[in-house]
Amino acid sequence: MSADCIFCKIINRELDADIVYEDEDVVAFKDINPAAPVHILITPRKHIPTIMDMEKSDEALIGRLHSAANEIARAFKLEKKGYRIVINCGSDAGQIVFHLHLHLLGGRPLLQTIAKGRGV
Length: 120
Ligand code: AMP
Ligand code: ZN
What we know:
There is one protein chain. The protein is an alpha+beta fold. The protein has helices spanning 6-11, 59-75, and strands spanning 19-22, 26-30, 38-44, 83-86, 102-106. A five-stranded antiparallel β-sheet has the order 1-2-3-5-4, with helices on one face. The longest helix has 17 residues, at 59-75. Bound molecules: adenosine monophosphate (AMP) and zinc ion.
């Protein structure tokens, strides 16, 4: 928990969000400014600022994020047409919220780029 982190506040129910999935380690909610018809942010309950900050002991947790992503993709009927998972790390990637999260993007054909941003 980091006091001034908006995703920690969402995870702790101090801030509203459209939560679509949660378990003991993971919380996922709709992105407030979606770049695709399905745009879900998948976060660990543990406050880890960036993927660069993960520790060896977080390896299983990162796996849990991906298992949750699969479950959410299925719930949103994306398993056949596909989707994209993005992690932004640091300023050159445009990371604006420093609590680790996967972006799950789908529901329309995505450009053949690995970049995030409005033109995904
Ligand atoms: P990133 O650039 O990877 O740090 O992405 C942060 C994402 O969080 C952006 O796509 C924002 O639209 C999204 N976001 C910021 N604040 C909120 C919020 N309160 N609820 C849901 N999504 C948010
Ligand atoms: Zn946090």
